[in-house]
């Protein structure tokens, strides 16, 4: 038998996503803050992109157009920004079609020289008042101290020795946000040109700083420092701390044997450990929570229904500087430079198109959500409809994955408050009388209402809640009630009976 090489041809298909398509998908799921950071990066990197500083402050008269094309004359500055992206007609809850949303986008990017600019939405927030419980002015203006500032202040009062100050300052810089020292002492000694004994001596000094437990090199040492301060670090507790792996594995009989204690003493030691702080440095965390800015504004229309438009404050105003591009094109340049200019122009063109498409998609998705959840906005959470991604995707003729990306980290401001778009999607709970199904969110709300209104002397069990819900038309199982109750962090009937029991 002779073995010889053989050449074969095989045909196959594969889906390949271009870098631009991947970037467009990424843009779609970015929050407004993340989008702002991305735009800032692109403005710094691309010389043909610039921020539209002359965006109109007044809302222009709405018409059926979704864009205005820019001229390409090199002697003229880009003009005529896009009209504000909003529904020209109110959303009527009785209308089930999507004719108001069917904006023709076939030629929206034909020219390529498009300005993305949205007029001001004109929405104003509710005014606030004065409250005696609010912090004073000096409290609001005072800057929060970081952990390192707090430790540095204690170092200056603990010693005046120059060597101790230098070593102590270096060790403070090595502490993480939780208060742990993650750098080996040998490495610290090498960096400082000091001996290991000197570094260990300084470490002993600064481990006495507040909050107790800082500068620990592991969890066991952190807990030991706090127990020493309480004068509870006896030999038995020391062995207990040194065998935290056995404690975590719940091998309490073995731990009791190692500590030389009875098994019934271990629970008390566990309770004492739970009073300690495993991350003492986090008390000085100054990371502020990211502000939530709505992407979509929703107001009640005077003629009935709802009016939905994008929040202009969250949309970047970006345009292509065609004047600069035309001027540079006329200058002599190498082949490499000309290729670079063409690539940057193409990138800028694509970015403007992608931003406009992103804004249009968000508007279409959020508008359909408002349409389908009209009962919620008019009557409250009890009338929240069960809805899945497909319900919206089928109406606006988009893929479910697109709807999922659009609703991630996007918020809508409504007369009932600020909600994430994903809030309006929930599973369904059947009805006992064969009527329309109920939203899982509305069921959770009803369960909470029942528990909040229950008599302390007659605490509702999960079985009782099921009977009450069944009487109201909900087809729900006991395990579902228990799951929803636990998700809302509501204790069992036994726990609630103990909490609501009158003091003796």
Number of helices: 21
Total individual domains: 3
Given as residue ranges, the uncertain stretches (5+ residues, pLDDT < 50) are 56-85, 93-142
Q: What percentage of amino acids are in beta strands?
A: 5-15%
What overall geometry do the principal axes of the alpha carbons give? extended
Q: Give average pLDDT, whole number.
A: 76
Which radius of gyration do the C-alpha atoms yield?
A: 32 Å
The largest β sheet comes out as:
4 strands, mixed
Distance between the termini: 98 Å
- Helix/strand order, N-terminal first: HHEHHHHHHHHHHEEEHHHHHEEEEHHHH
Q: Could you please describe the fold and organization of this structure?
A:
With 504 residues, the chain is mainly α. The chain has 3 domains: 19-121 and 293-418, no CATH class; 147-284, no CATH class; 427-500, Homeodomain-like (Arc Repressor Mutant, subunit A), CATH 1.10.10.60. The protein is 44% helix and 6% strand. It contains 21 helices and 8 strands. The strands form 3 sheets. It has a 4-stranded mixed sheet, covered by helices on one side. Helix 4 (147-158) runs antiparallel to helix 5 (162-173). The radius of gyration is 32 Å and the shape is extended. The chain starts with 18 loop residues before the first helix and ends with a helix. Residues 56-85 and 93-142 have low confidence and may be disordered.
